[in-house]
């Protein structure tokens, strides 16, 4: 059964997509960003909104497996797509990537963490044997003001083995 959300507004458009493996049908104003739809309409608050300009990476989600800034995508643009947020990356247990973040102390306040983990997950899914230079290049689009990037890069490099084995 699909989850149905109807936020208030005058002109609404219906959009249907898959969110973290569940069918979703929701009515949104045409100008509603995917980030706002996910957070406000569908109450999945792990996706954070920072700059609202696509610069910080806090709102990164997966759309059909690609890491995308949810603040730059309109909700109506994901019609029929598969969207995965940080909540959809693990079940009851932490994922190997999340375990690596904890092991390497790759988070402090946690605001940027969902975007980093989602971005790193997309990278490691497509390139499980990625080198440090590539990790740094891909993660350069995500901003962290607390931790510094060394523990984050170390965590991603540590998680590579699990992705190479298909244990993501």
Can you describe what's shown?
It is built from five helices and six strands. The chain is of the alpha/beta class and 168 residues long. It has a six-stranded mixed β-sheet with strand order 1-3-2-6-4-5, with helices on both faces. The radius of gyration is 16 Å and the shape is globular. The mean pLDDT is 93.
What integer value in Å does the Rg equal?
16 Å
Q: Taking strands numbered 1, 2, ... along the chain, how are they ordered across the largest sheet? A: 1-3-2-6-4-5
- Count of separate DSSP helical elements: 5
Inertia-based shape: globular
User: Percent of residues in helical segments?
Assistant: 25-40%
Order of helices and strands: EEEHEEEHHHH
Report the count of strand segments: 6
**How far apart are the termini?**
27 Å
Q: What is the overall pLDDT average?
A: 93
Biggest β-sheet strands, sense, barrel: 6 strands, mixed
Amount of beta strand: 15-25%
Taking pLDDT < 50 over at least 5 consecutive residues as the criterion, the unreliable ranges are none
Class from secondary-structure proportions: alpha/beta
Which key features would you list for this structure?
single chain; six-stranded mixed beta sheet; 6 strands; alpha/beta
Task: Break the fold down into its secondary structure elements and pairings.
Elements lengths: L2 E3 L7 E7 L2 E7 L5 H8 L18 E4 L2 E4 L12 E3 L11 H8 L9 H14 L5 H8 L10 H15 L4
């Amino acid at each position: 059964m699909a989850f149905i959300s109807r936020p208030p507004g005058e002109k609404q458009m219906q959009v249907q997509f898959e969110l973290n493996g569940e069918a979703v049908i929701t009515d949104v104003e045409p100008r509603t960003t995917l980030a706002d739809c996910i957070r406000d309409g569908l109450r999945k608050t792990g996706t954070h909104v920072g700059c609202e300009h696509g610069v910080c990476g806090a709102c990164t989600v997966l759309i059909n497996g690609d890491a995308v800034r949810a603040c730059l995508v309109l909700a109506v643009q994901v019609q029929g797509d598969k969207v995965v947020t940080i909540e959809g990356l693990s079940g009851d247990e932490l994922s190997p990537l999340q375990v690596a973040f904890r092991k390497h102390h790759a988070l402090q306040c946690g605001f940027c963490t969902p975007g980093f983990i989602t971005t790193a997950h997309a990278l490691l899914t497509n390139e499980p044997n990625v080198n440090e230079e590539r990790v740094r290049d891909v993660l350069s689009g995500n901003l962290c003001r607390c931790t510094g990037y060394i523990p984050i890069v170390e965590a991603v490099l540590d998680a590579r083995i699990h992705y190479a084995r298909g244990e993501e």
